[in-house]
Design brief:
There is one protein chain. It is globular and about 50 Å long. It is built from 4 helices and 6 strands. The longest helix is centred in the middle third of the chain and has 17 residues. The model has no long low-confidence stretch (mean pLDDT about 95). By secondary structure, it is of the alpha+beta class.
């Protein structure tokens, strides 16, 4: 993973693009991404209409007191990929936020193992978007977690 310096997005720049265009710009300008990605050790990998992937590798600082990868790490990765799948359908001049999400942990991810978190859009309307996601090991292809989300899509009046 490379070290990226993050900056808060410029509101006008963000609203001047569709969600898909903004995410595609993030691939070439990683600093536009979420600052939480640095602490959680993940980065945007691929973007297409209705589908987004992140690559990640849990480290020691992501463990719980029993030494396993904390469930919040799984949740953060799934929230990011699933919500960004919704973002691919957000029109220019609109924003989105997660309303709720659900995570199912299937097996423990070993510390240091590279994973891919994939979010896939199921529905995007005027005011809500729904998607699902999964976390798989890069080397073994095994399924480690699944999730689903509902996001609120909001049209912003230009100031």
């Amino acid at each position: 993973m490379t070290t990226t310096t993050y900056t808060l997005p410029d509101r006008d720049r963000m609203l001047s693009m569709s969600g898909l265009d903004y995410l595609q710009t993030m691939l070439t300008e990683p600093g536009l991404g979420a600052p939480i990605a640095r602490g959680m050790n993940y980065q945007l990998d691929t973007v297409a209409l209705g589908k987004v992937t992140f690559r990640a590798r849990p480290e020691y600082q992501h463990t719980n007191p029993m030494g396993g990868v904390h469930g919040g790490w799984y949740g953060t990765l799934l929230d990011s990929c699933m919500a960004c799948a919704v973002m691919t359908a957000v029109p220019k001049g609109a924003v989105y936020t997660t309303l709720e999400y659900k995570v199912n942990l299937i097996r423990a991810i070993p510390i240091g193992m590279e994973i891919i978190a994939t979010g896939v859009l199921d529905h995007a309307g005027r005011s809500t978007g729904v998607s699902h996601g999964e976390i798989r090991g890069v080397a073994d292809g095994k399924l480690y977690a699944t999730g689903s989300t509902t996001c609120l899509i909001m049209q912003i009046n230009p100031s």
